[in-house]
Amino acid sequence: MRIAVASTIVLLSAGTTLAQTREAGPWWPNPAWGAGDQAGASNWITPDKVLEAVGLVKAGKIYEIGQVYEKGMPLFGRRTYALLSPGSPTYAFPTANRIVANDEFVCGEIGQVGTQFDGPGHIGMKVKMADGSTQDVYYNGFTGAEMYSAYGLQKLGIENVKPMLTRGILIDLAGYKNLPNLPARYEVTLADVRGALARQGLSESDLRPGDALLFRYGWSRFWTEPAKYNTDPPGIGLEVARWVVARKASMVGSDQSGTEVGPNPDPSLAFPVHQELIMKNGILNIENLTLEELARDAAWEFLFVFTPVRFKGATGSPGRPLAIR
Amino acid sequence: MRIAVASTIVLLSAGTTLAQTREAGPWWPNPAWGAGDQAGASNWITPDKVLEAVGLVKAGKIYEIGQVYEKGMPLFGRRTYALLSPGSPTYAFPTANRIVANDEFVCGEIGQVGTQFDGPGHIGMKVKMADGSTQDVYYNGFTGAEMYSAYGLQKLGIENVKPMLTRGILIDLAGYKNLPNLPARYEVTLADVRGALARQGLSESDLRPGDALLFRYGWSRFWTEPAKYNTDPPGIGLEVARWVVARKASMVGSDQSGTEVGPNPDPSLAFPVHQELIMKNGILNIENLTLEELARDAAWEFLFVFTPVRFKGATGSPGRPLAIR
Amino acid sequence: MRIAVASTIVLLSAGTTLAQTREAGPWWPNPAWGAGDQAGASNWITPDKVLEAVGLVKAGKIYEIGQVYEKGMPLFGRRTYALLSPGSPTYAFPTANRIVANDEFVCGEIGQVGTQFDGPGHIGMKVKMADGSTQDVYYNGFTGAEMYSAYGLQKLGIENVKPMLTRGILIDLAGYKNLPNLPARYEVTLADVRGALARQGLSESDLRPGDALLFRYGWSRFWTEPAKYNTDPPGIGLEVARWVVARKASMVGSDQSGTEVGPNPDPSLAFPVHQELIMKNGILNIENLTLEELARDAAWEFLFVFTPVRFKGATGSPGRPLAIR
Amino acid sequence: MRIAVASTIVLLSAGTTLAQTREAGPWWPNPAWGAGDQAGASNWITPDKVLEAVGLVKAGKIYEIGQVYEKGMPLFGRRTYALLSPGSPTYAFPTANRIVANDEFVCGEIGQVGTQFDGPGHIGMKVKMADGSTQDVYYNGFTGAEMYSAYGLQKLGIENVKPMLTRGILIDLAGYKNLPNLPARYEVTLADVRGALARQGLSESDLRPGDALLFRYGWSRFWTEPAKYNTDPPGIGLEVARWVVARKASMVGSDQSGTEVGPNPDPSLAFPVHQELIMKNGILNIENLTLEELARDAAWEFLFVFTPVRFKGATGSPGRPLAIR
Lengths: 325, 325, 325, 325
Prior knowledge:
homotetramer; 9-stranded mixed β-sheet; alpha/beta
């Protein structure tokens, strides 16, 4: 399986004569949601799915599974995060009620810092098209030419994604391995995933379309050590990614910065899981979670809530993911 | 009642000799949540309240009740919102899988632009203290001296507020008045609120502690006309605010920029409802909603979901409020 | 002349078979400064030119010819400018000397807001290359492929431009026309320029290589009315631009937002003077000046000082241009 | 002398009964420039001073003595600097001339990052006033109450400072000590300064009012090692600062982040030289220079040029300082 995937990728990148156009290509139009769809696998979240997920709430207990945003948290590459308080206070009115008020000012790659949710416009591929041109192609065949602007994406912006209220499943790999965290660079295998599910009393057939699959690697324990956190995290590879696709998940998530193993064991590939999930299948991805409390409580199944902020044209979203039981 | 409130405010601002200190003053420590509490009325959202709210979901239908964030939307005062796409694409890797990836860069008063949720550190008052000093005092008696820093609030930051998953009640005032929108500067009366509830088949006794009370004025129809939208919106005044306090609401919200009538009919007061709710009682406030679809569906009661993003030290939060039935 | 220019442009854009490559094309390599040069016409500012310019200072009088930067000033397109004061004060140290200190926080298109100096990486053209590809080509043949990154230009960044200490010449067109300002959309003719010089007791032969030529249209009187300021300013067109090139000016400048007439009388051209000067000839351009005081004093010749801030990879620079006599 | 200074500071901070008011206090009104002045020692730069300085240019040679601004450069405290290129290109017009154009987007503490010039509003002191209140007091007695706003300083903003075109003097302390750089934490003594001047063939009497005095410690060699650069730099202390005041310098500068020794040998004082120079005397300060080339050329005296960008309400300015001979 894995070889086939890599072959497809190489085939595409080698620019052999394929008939792909904006209208049709190897991963577009999307077979499930059709040409023009921009919501990706968030489409799985139908009223029935919401009802199923809400039905999991038995105790009313809310778990915070995202991180707090603050300067000094791990950032990828050259990204920035700064929060300033203007004025202190920002306003003071000379009225009888002597009101004072505060703002905050933030700058940074707001959808791609801290706990971050990758939208459908985040990841694409340079593809040789039938007309000889090379184009950046994204989910459902949208091209850079259609999407790019200086002031946000014209297509596949995060505002197209539905709110993520769905059934969440924790897949506790560190627990399965009986380790505080998986080792650096470890690629989680499908056997690991199946073993972890079995340990939790679940099997593959318990997973249902639209579920949010959250992988616990134990990596969040290094959150306060950015250099370590950012280096060579364990994670899933293409084998598990393809299994995720087959499960028809709406999204994945994990307690490291990219969900997938970094770097990929195949040195010719950069972030191929992102392409497999987001680009080819519109399966979304939330990163930099903390899943420790869920694991301690053996909370394997829950109502998952994440509401991507509709910053028009953004590639992703910050937010506050919750697991509720 | 109204007079008494105004008197209190004037009394405080006149600096008469009161015994107020950091430990005790007219609105602190908070009688419900105790000294030191920073979560305010989000504390109403207990497991039981979550269960009650989740139990309202019968159809799995999700209503989007927030606005999309984009340059050109109405902004208060001198606030800023800009979103940039660096690079287009931001990254391109020369690997076999030829991946490209995008970020977005945002700057602005992120918790106080667009659909915005006012946290407990947003609003305070200059108060003459027993030691003769004048201090900025906020919810539960926290002072500017404790809170202010250049890089975010040290106390009462939005990260202290619990996720808002609670029972939501729409109070459709425009519908009650049979108008597309209430007139500019109109102060909603308690009689209006009671009339609107009655029209919806509800009475005061149907409201329960921890509910989110959302006022529909019809003002969101001017969202695309920032100058009009920002000028003199209708809204509740101190009379209704005190009734909200008595209802033990966790939060309020509305389809204009401040929920309260602007300007206040009493020209000596600036944003007194903000003080009454947020500062004195920790009752939170979400602004710039759009409640049209809820009203059309007569969706008066629902699961309300808003998850304030935990930007450490922020005064508020952007987000994506939902009503679910 | 004009026709020829337009023809060249159309020819290029039509993509006829030209031999242009990265190494050679219609405007590259630059005949004066050679392949690889990134400093453009700032190269004219040799030690001798500095001595010539400094020699013009007889009275030691400094004229401020730039605008102050502040929120609310005219901005082009969707640009942003915001300045915040964090903290107030930002820092306070509990030492015996009880020091307090302030910062400011700025965000915006820093080299392209307010008084702005266009660097060599600001303006280019889509060109059909000999290999069939279409590339963005800039001054001296540098291509987008070489220059673009998400975090600043890799080539032709403003840091490559030499400090502008040179002889400045004011060309007072509004004065020549005896108007407070030239009319909107007026294209300054070469005859106008010659007339204005003659009125000032200068002729074309008094201009020397490396001079900074500043055009006064009188348009800065609308600086405080952004909508008017931004609409259809008078300015030079291609006729005068070509004359500027022949004069071997190091730079131009003016008291409107683009120096050139807007829009161009030929509706098929957008900002062609920018291409003629910056892209083809590396002649730099400072915009949004105020030249009123110079005109009042009949200060036609002076030491011009502008020191582009070396923000690495920036397309332009803010700053404080001076005329000194 | 030193003791006296420290005493004054302690006296002030102890809050003993002094008659200081907004109108008069220990360092205000400024005896040289009078009440209300906001330009500080830039007032020394009169037409005569400009003529004197310009007269130093004999060869037309320009030395760059500032650093390039880029992400990763040393930053003080929690400051931020980021530059983004939106779009790549930002604009592309579908006109016959197929123009493309670029912007850059910057965010950060723009006047207090990289090569930075401290304006008169940067540094103050908490002072006990005659009325019992404690106020932040700045140059010429301006108080925080007058100055602070969320959107820039209302008084003493950088826009009040005159362009710095003056006589510059390099005081090469590393050269005098025959070291590549002075040791960490070394406080330069007055004897050192006099020795350095003597080595350069200069004496105290060669210094004149309005000169810019630039101290070379050799510290810029650590510019590319931010952790080292930011830790315990050598620099002048109060002894030399008082001598600078007596020299009536318009400004100082150096090749480290604060010009003064860090930390001060007296642990009860934080940045006292900043107070002595900027706050008490309006003597400005440019930091993070690179003076190596000047030293190599024994360029001790020159035309110094620095034009603070007039960001309204800013505490300082970035820029491109030059030495010209």
